[in-house]
Amino acid sequence: MKTENQRAWFFVLPVLLLVAFNALIPIMTVVNYSVQETFGNNVFFWQGLDWFEQILRSDRFHAALGRQFMFTGLILAIEIPLGIIVALSMPRKGFWVPVCLVTMALPMLIPWNVVGSMWNIFTLPKIGLLGYFMNDVLGVNYDMTQQPISAWVTIIIMDVWHWTSLVVLLSYAGLVSIPDAYYQAAKIDGASPWKVFRYIQLPKMKTVLTIAVLLRFMDSFNIYTEPFVLTGGGPGNSTTLLSIDLVKIALGQFDLGPAAAMSLIYFAITLLVSWLFYTLMTKDDAQ
Amino acid sequence: MAKITLSNLRHSYLPNPSGPADYALKEIDLDWKDGGAYALLGPSGCGKSTLLNIISGLLVPSQGRILFDDKDVTDLPPDQRNIAQVFQFPVIYDTMTVRENLAFPLRNRGVAEAKVAQRVAEIAAMLEVEEMLDTRAAHLSPDNKQKISMGRGLVRDDVNVVMFDEPLTVIDPHLKWKLRSKLKELHQRVKATMIYVTHDQTEALTFADQVVVMQEGEIVQIGTPVELFERPQHTFVGHFIGSPGMNILPAVVEGGHVTFCGHRVPVEGKVTGSGGVTQLGVRPEFVSLAETGIPARLRKVSDVGRHAVVETVVGDTAVKAVIEGELPEQGAEVHLVFQEDQTRLYRDGWIATEVAS
Predict the structure, then answer these.
(1) Residue A275: enclosing H or E segment and its boundaries?
(2) Which of A2, A66, A90, B303 has its CA 20 to 30 A from that of B62?
C-alpha cells in the first residue's frame, strides 16, 4: 500500500518561490498601482478601472501602439526572409563555417545601449561616417535628428543589423540538421531548387523559425534602449514606441496609475500576439 | 529498363590518391543484367554505398565509365538517369499528403495530370497504401514511410534501376520480413533492375538472384546465394556468409596433399597453384562428429533450436560444427570428419582447389 502524504508539495515549493519573486509579486505590484491614484507620501485612493479606460481611449496610446506594430512588422518582414536567405547561402562544411558563425554572432554580443550610441554617432550628419557619406558624398538629405523618415530608416536598419544574425543562426541550425539523403532524393525526383526549399528546407526549418519569429516579435515589441539612445523617441514623437512612451508616463510625468494600467495592457497585447503566432505556426502539426 | 555496365570504375574521396589504400573503390568491372534482382553485400565501409551513389549519379567516379544500355551516363546528373533510390532513413516530403508524395517525381517532369493520377493509383494499389493516400505523410509509421519512398521510385514507368540503400534499417523486426517479401513481389511485378545494398546476409540472400560480395572496395565474388554458400571464392565470403561462418583453418600442402594440425584432410579436388599462405575452408554444416577422424576437445555447445553449434578445439585451433540430434557433453573428447566434397583449400585467401568432377 502507498501511504498518502503531502510531502510532494515540498518539491514544488522552490519553483513557487522563484516564480513568486521573479513574476507574480512584481506583476501584482503593478496591478495594485493600476487601480489606484496617488499624490505621493504613500497615500493611495481607489480608482477602479478608470486608468484602463483612459489609456484605451487615449489617442497618444493608439499612436504609440500603431508605431510599435509598424516597427515590429517591418523588422519581422525584413529579418525573417533575410535571415533565411543568409542561412541558405552559408557554407555547410569546412573552414568558413566557424568564420561565418562567429562573424554573425558579433552584433548580438554588443550591449543594447552601445548599439544605440554606435548608430547615433555613425549616422549623425557631419560627424558620423554614414551621415557624412549620405549628405556630403551622395547629396541625400539625411538627418535622423530632424526628419521622421530618416529616423525610422535608421532604427529599422539598426535593428536589422543587430538581430538578423539570430534568425540566421537559428535557420542555419535547422538547415544543417537535414540529412543529405533528402537532397539526394530530391535530385533523383527531379525537384527544382525552389521545390527543394519549399518542400524540404522550409518544413525542416519550421520549428526553429517559429522560435525565431516569437523571439524577434517579443524582443522588438518590447524594444526600448536602442531607439531611446538613438533618437530619444524623436524627432517629435515620431519614433516614440510603446516602451518609450510608457517610461515617459511612468518616470517623466510620474503618473504611476496610468503607467501601470498601460504596462498591463502592453503585456496582454504581447502575450496575445505571441500566442497567435505560436498557434498559427504550429496548427498543422496538431492535425 | 536497362542493362548497366560498370567499366574500369575507381573512386577516391581524396583529391590526389596515391596508393590503393586511398581508393574507396578499386577497379570495378561489372554487368547488371536488365531486370535482375541484385544484392550488394559487404561490411560497413566496404564501398557499397559509394558504388550505389556512383550508379545513381550522386557521385562522379574518379575513373571509369558507367553505361546504361551502352549509353554513357557517367557525367549525367541523377535526374537525367531515370533511376530511383530508396535510402536508409525514409525520405518523404512531410508537408505533402501521400498522394502528393507519390505524384511528386511525375509532376516535376511535367507528366499530364490524368497520367499522374493513373500511375499513383496503380502504385498505391501495388503497395497497398490506398487508404492512406490523403493523409499527411508526416504522420505515417516508419515502414509506411519507407513504402512511400519506394513508391516514389516505382511511380515512373521509365525507371532504369531501383536502388535500395539498406532500406530496412529503421523498420521494426516483425515488419522487416513483410516489407522484404513485398519488395520481392514488386520486383516480379515491375521487372525493373533492382540493386539492394545491405550488410545483412539474410536480407541479401532472400532478396537477390545474384549477390555481389564486396570487401575493402573490391568485388570478391558474384554468385547466386547457393553458390556463395557452397563454394565461396574467397575466405572472406566464407566467413561473412553463413551463421556461423566458414571454418578457416591453417593448412599445410605437401605433395598435393593437405594436412591440418598433422592430420591429412581430403579436399574436393586437385590443389592448384603454389606458395602463399594456405588455409582450409569447411563450413560448420559439413563438419560432423564421428568415432574416428581428427581428435578434438569439445569446448562449447550452444543450442540454437533446430540444431546445435558446437565449438571444438584441435590443438589451439577452434573448429565449429553444426550438429543435429544427440549432443556430447562439454569437455568431451570427440573426432571430427570434414565432408570431402565441401572441403576446400584457399591460397592467400582465394580458392585453390578444382571442383570435384
Answers:
(1) helix A256-286
(2) A90
CATH superfamily of A59-286: MetI-like (1.10.3720.10)
Backbone angles phi, psi at B337, to 5 degrees: -125, 130
Q: How near does any CA of chain B get to the CA of A179, in Å?
A: 9
The closest CB to that of A181, out of B83, B87, B136, belongs to B87
CATH architecture of the domain with range B4-230: 3-Layer(aba) Sandwich (3.40)
Instruction: Select from A179, A187, A190 the Cβ nearest to the Cβ of B89.
Output: A179
The pLDDT of residue A3 is above 80: no
Overall fold of domain B244-351: OB fold (Dihydrolipoamide Acetyltransferase, E2P) (2.40.50)
Q: For residue A160, is pLDDT > 90?
A: yes
Interface of B with A in 133-192 (CB under 8 A): 136, 149, 152-153
Beta-carbon count within 10 A of B249 CB:
20
Sign for the pseudo-dihedral over CA of B18, B24, B26, B32 = negative
Decide if B110 touches A, using CB distance below 8 A: no
Query: What is the per-residue pLDDT across B55-95, written as a single tens digit (0 to 9) for each?
Result: 888 888 888 888 888 788 888 888 788 888 888 888 889 88
Candidate from A190, A203, A204 with C-beta closest to B79: A190
Average pLDDT over residues B153-170: 83
In this complex, is the C-beta atom of B97 within 8 Å of any C-beta atom belonging to chain A? no
Q: What share of residues in chain B are helix, strand, coil (percent, to 5)?
A: 30, 35, 35
User: pTM here?
Assistant: 0.75
Residues A129, A130, A136: CA angle, nearest 5 degrees: 85
Interface check for B56 against chain A (CB to CB < 8 A): the answer is yes
ipTM for the whole predicted complex goes beyond 0.95: no
pLDDT grade for A147, boundaries at 50, 70 and 90: confident
